[in-house]
Amino acid sequence: MTESNKETFMDKKLSRRRMLKMTGAGAAGVAIGASGLGGVLKAFGVPDFLEDDTSVENKVNFYGKHQSGIATEVQTHVYFASLSVLVKSKAELQELFKMWTPMAVSLMNGKPIGETKNSYVPPVDTGEAIGVDAKNLSITFGVGPSLFKNKSLGLSHLKPKELNDLPHFPKDQLEEAYTGGDLCIQACADDPQVAFHAVRNLVRAASGKVSIKWTQAGFNSIPVNKEGKRETPRNLFAFKDGTENPRSEKAMNDVVWVQKGESKPWMTNGSYLVVRRIQMHLETWDRTSLQAQEDTFGRYRHNGAPYGKENEFDAVDEDRKDENGNYVLPETSHVFLARQVKARIMRRAFSYSSGVIDHTGAYDAGLLFISFQKNPQQFTDIQNALGRLDKMNEYITHRGSGVFACFPGIKKGSYIGEALFNA
Amino acid sequence: MTESNKETFMDKKLSRRRMLKMTGAGAAGVAIGASGLGGVLKAFGVPDFLEDDTSVENKVNFYGKHQSGIATEVQTHVYFASLSVLVKSKAELQELFKMWTPMAVSLMNGKPIGETKNSYVPPVDTGEAIGVDAKNLSITFGVGPSLFKNKSLGLSHLKPKELNDLPHFPKDQLEEAYTGGDLCIQACADDPQVAFHAVRNLVRAASGKVSIKWTQAGFNSIPVNKEGKRETPRNLFAFKDGTENPRSEKAMNDVVWVQKGESKPWMTNGSYLVVRRIQMHLETWDRTSLQAQEDTFGRYRHNGAPYGKENEFDAVDEDRKDENGNYVLPETSHVFLARQVKARIMRRAFSYSSGVIDHTGAYDAGLLFISFQKNPQQFTDIQNALGRLDKMNEYITHRGSGVFACFPGIKKGSYIGEALFNA
Ligand code: HEM
Ligand code: HEM
């Protein structure tokens, strides 16, 4: 028996009776009820407070002015979860976010949510990420419009007026199975299992307090060039996706981060997340000429440059006309249309590929479109500009939707959403 | 305009008329019909023969004694596709595999299936893997029992007697949506988009000749230790999965590779693939004590060592008893039971996590179990040994199934499945 095994057995002996009392389990190894889990975990292994461990490799910081997973350089994987709230009071909801805070720090430190010290209860952490480093895990928490309609929580007076379900857009075919949610957790990492593990453990620790409404896993394939520099990933239409995005601090403040006075005070330094599960009809796209594909975006496929320009990051000039007086960018192109309104957004999307649709054999694949903006209206303005004109409409169908107010960043000693609960 | 853009426009001018004739498209950019696609691709950009480019980074070889993706060190992602055959003759099926051969080589070289030289037809390659290296892509082709029952193909006399749908096992809850198939393509890579891209392009080039029956994406999170060595990945129950597997050449010949005279001659050096889509009931598992979890396998969670041993790779001794005469390995444990029969298999599994099951909110997650063996009976013997006794049955449900005869490796100048067509 190794030292570590010995330790486990020692612990068992010492605390077995206490465990059985605690869990109400009549015999060793008996499963405990769902609702008792959070308490057991917290009592036996989850710390109350944790700091970012900056010695960890591939580590994103939890604490800061803004939440992680928004300005964070996009990772290769996401596991996005939309949750329903089961708690019946504001105090319980507050407790939930307090409990989640050190867990999220621990996960982002590449550690389990807590140490399992005893074999007679379920492991504190589900364990599938043991031995894998932090993988740049980021965890972003948000609250949806329905949370504020929930009377027993008494939060309705704190709903920002801009936080509403998105309007119905002409070609939407939203499915209940991918729409809405009281809370969201966006876990992004450079490993699918690490992202999944984060959501699974947060939800599990909150069993009886939240339930899953829908989830979607997604990925980005990030090319690295000869100089070792990351390039813009391509979506499943093979076009570079994410080129035109706010990046400077000024642009982020203009577009993404809620400034003082722009929303409810508890949202200052936060941002609004819009998620759309957009099916891409790959079979139709794949029968379309390269010319028509490029006309769809107004960009070249091979290097992502805008029509009439040479390089991916050359400025788009949507007003430019050729010698015949025609716009250089096709007037039905996605980029031309997206630029007909002033609003801007920060896109942080992932591809998904979830098998095939049962009755048709078509790929259930597309874009898990995620954008951040200081007001969901920015998204709505652009989506309306794309409207019925966007040539891309022939090739896509919006199947899911959500909008969430993502809290500002968390200060050490504080907890996720504190400003909301103290408002 | 850059040099490369100029080239594209030159090409367009030169061959536009030829294109329009070829595709029957009346106007530039008009989509062409599904059935015409393969021919167009082949005529304009797919080579007839290609060699492994050993100068490419992260490259698995296509040609060899055995197909890739079997003995190949397991990658982090799989996209598994089961296909139905639409062709009506052996000659057409043979043409299909001939067409796929150089495409598979090109993909495994980290290249598109062919060069797109003209904008007035659909791109030869769908392009989403441009700029990403080979990512250790392996592509494994197999044929299912139903292919030999298809009268128009005239292959029935070539069916190996061991190639049959698996028998119904007591606790099976197989769904048609994840079961069977005439052909399979297993694409594995260290990138989800590269794996998906491979299947998408092979299937697209074969449009009108095959259709997709079902697909499943999967992943492995492979820990790397301090010495930079890869460790055994953990499944979603957090246990190291793949520890006990044939590895030596002798073991591979005994367990995995069909030897001369052991099956139909066309299968010599090939192997049989069994795939099972096994849902893992994570919610139930996560309420189970660590002790009971470890008893389920007869191995320790933290390091994967078998009960009574110290290290992951220590030999399992299923006959050993303790001082009271009880087996050290629980008699209902997965490992104990799997060892009650002589048969062995090589497991090469991936986890999957495909959202939640609509009406219950339970994770649609589990193991895309894939095993290779020289005879599917080896799998059946073990599955029968697990039978109704396996403690793990409480936590899993088999939802999908397939069995495929994977051809031997391909010699340069030959093509996938040649031995079958020449038999
Ligand atoms: C499957 C759906 C979509 C695909 C495949 C897609 C793809 C693209 C591509 C390839 C670009 C050009 C490269 C870049 O700047 O990133 C782009 C730009 C853009 N897209 Fe989308 N997009 C999709 C949906 C949407 C939606 C729903 C919105 C918002 C309503 C949107 C807003 C934008 C904006 C604002 C730009 C930048 C335009 C500019 O300022 O140049 N996209 N998209
Ligand atoms: C979700 C389903 C399954 C899970 C989670 C699972 C997990 C495991 C684990 C953790 C081990 C021990 C570590 C190792 O040697 O890799 C193992 C061993 C093994 N499993 Fe499974 N397994 C599953 C399904 C199956 C099925 C369907 C079969 C075949 C019918 C199978 C056959 C084996 C064999 C042969 C061994 C090695 C036993 C030995 O010789 O020590 N497993 N499995």
Automatic annotation (TrEMBL), chains A, B:
Domain Dyp-type peroxidase C-terminal: 232-409
Reactions catalysed, as given in the entry: heme b + 2 H(+) = protoporphyrin IX + Fe(2+)
One Gene Ontology CC term in the entry: cell envelope
Keywords from the named record: Heme, Iron, Lyase, Metal-binding, Oxidoreductase, Peroxidase, Signal
EC number: 1.11.1.-
Note accompanying the cofactor annotation: Binds 1 heme b (iron(II)-protoporphyrin IX) group non-covalently per subunit.
Cofactor needs: heme b
GO-annotated molecular function: ferrochelatase activity; heme binding; metal ion binding; peroxidase activity
Gene Ontology BP terms: iron import into cell
PROSITE patterns assigned: DYP_PEROXIDASE, TAT
Xref: InterPro entries: Dimeric_a/b-barrel (IPR011008), Dyp_perox_C (IPR048328), Dyp_perox_N (IPR048327), Dyp_peroxidase (IPR006314), EfeB/EfeN (IPR006313), TAT_signal (IPR006311)
Record's keyword annotation contains Metal-binding: yes
Domain of life: Bacteria
Dyp-type peroxidase N-terminal domain: residues covered: 67-220
Keyword Ribosomal protein found: no
Localization: Cell envelope
PANTHER family, A to Z: DEFERROCHELATASE, DEFERROCHELATASE/PEROXIDASE
Family: Belongs to the DyP-type peroxidase family.
Main function: Involved in the recovery of exogenous heme iron. Extracts iron from heme while preserving the protoporphyrin ring intact.
NCBIfam families cross-referenced by the UniProt entry: Dyp_perox_fam (TIGR01413), tat_substr_1 (TIGR01412)
Protein name as it appears in the record: Deferrochelatase
Organism for this UniProt entry: Candidatus Kurthia intestinigallinarum
